[in-house]
Input
Amino acid sequence: MDELNRKSVEAFRMSEKTPVTVVLDNIRSMHNVGSVFRTADAFLVEAIYLCGYTPQPPHRDIHKTALGATETVAWKYFPSATEAVHQLKAAGYSVWAVEQAEGSLALGNVEWQQLAEHAGSGKIAVIFGNEVSGVSDEVLPLCEGCIEIPQTGMKHSFNISVAAGIVLWELVQLLKHEGK
Output
């Protein structure tokens, strides 16, 4: 473990965070929630907002996949994703849904500045929706737009935890590229 240069919980909490907040909108699976926590920890994400009926820690099934990330990544619960989005916008975030929608931006073609241009803070929030129905219809109009992960196979869908990993990886790479 020492060779991996892992941070302690305290060192993680004091580290400079990636200026991204993840919003989970009515996610059903505790394993998906735990996996997103683990991915958020890996990329030093600022926070996770758990909304609606998305399960909340502590729970053994979340812990099973989070592997302690619920102790490092800041999180907050909101009764609805619309409440979370309103709070994020009031705090200066640019809010984007990760969703297949008309007019969506292909993930590989976006730039950080393009995503953050609506926010004075330079921070963004990305919303991941329910495993079956996606981001809530009432949330989509509140977003700056949608980011879509281009796909060429038959299914044209990813598990939410996989989608979160892909999107967060790309956002971290954009930040590195733009020197933020």
Q: What stands out?
A: Helices lie at 9-14, 30-42, 60-66, 81-90, 112-116, 160-177. The beta strands are 18-25, 45-51, 74-78, 94-98, 105-106, 124-128, 145-148. The chain has one domain: 2-177. The first helix runs from residue 9 to 14.
